Amino acid sequence: MGEISQYRPGNKAPNNGVYIEKAKREVVVRGPQQVELNTG
């Protein structure tokens, strides 16, 4: 079972760590955004 790929305000992270923006399919993301989340 995979993790959800899009988060909305109020969602909780499945694991502690840094989450990085990733593109769908073959599109390149320039300067991906990063956010550090904790389970909670």
Order of helices and strands: EE
Roughly how many Å apart are the termini? 20 Å
Widest sheet, order of strands: 1-2
- Largest pleated sheet: 2 strands, antiparallel
Count of discrete alpha- or pi-helical segments spanning 4 or more residues? 0
The general outline is: elongated
Number of strand segments:
2
Name the average pLDDT.
77
Uncertain spans, ≥5 residues at pLDDT below 50?
none
- Overall helicity: under 10%
Percent strand: 15-25%
| Rounded radius of gyration (Å) | 11 Å
Number of domains: 1
Structural class based on helices, strands and sheet pairing? mainly beta
Give a nutshell description of this structure.
This protein has 40 residues and is mainly β. It has strands at 17-20, 34-37.
Features:
0% helix, two-stranded antiparallel ribbon, 40 residues, mainly beta, elongated
Please, could you describe this protein's structure?
The chain has one domain (about 15-40). The chain contains no helices and 2 strands. It has strands at about 15-20, 35. The chain has a two-stranded antiparallel sheet. It is elongated.
